[in-house]
Amino acid sequence: MSDFSKLFKKENTGQLILGILFIIYLALGLKTPASIASLIDTLVGKIVIILIVIYFFIKMNPLLAVLALFAGFQLIYNSSVVTGTDALKKYVPSEKKKESQFTAFNQFPYTLEQEVVARMAPVMKPGTSISKASYKPVLENLYDASPINSTN
Prior knowledge:
mainly alpha
């Protein structure tokens, strides 16, 4: 209660006015202008707001610091609403959600094509030996054409 009575002393008039402005901002739910919101809705802007609130907790009246905390969070939230990042977080799915949906869509039953491919003769892998062929290839007449491995 002593902190509350200290707020009404003559040397703390600025803190009292600032506290009243915080209460008005929180009660009326004022919208943040787009030009200010674009500055606050960045990482640097959010860090600056948090540092200001921490400064209030260190140097100012604790009651005013709590009001600054609520006003700072409200300012950050209102800025994200104005710039649209709040809507992006709410309505745009994350990569994990997209991946889970795609895996759900790609679950197919065992098809006839897969069954036929599974029954086919195995394909020879490179490096495996193949037995000698029982036939000998015969070269057809070239009709005056040069062979493929010719150097002419």
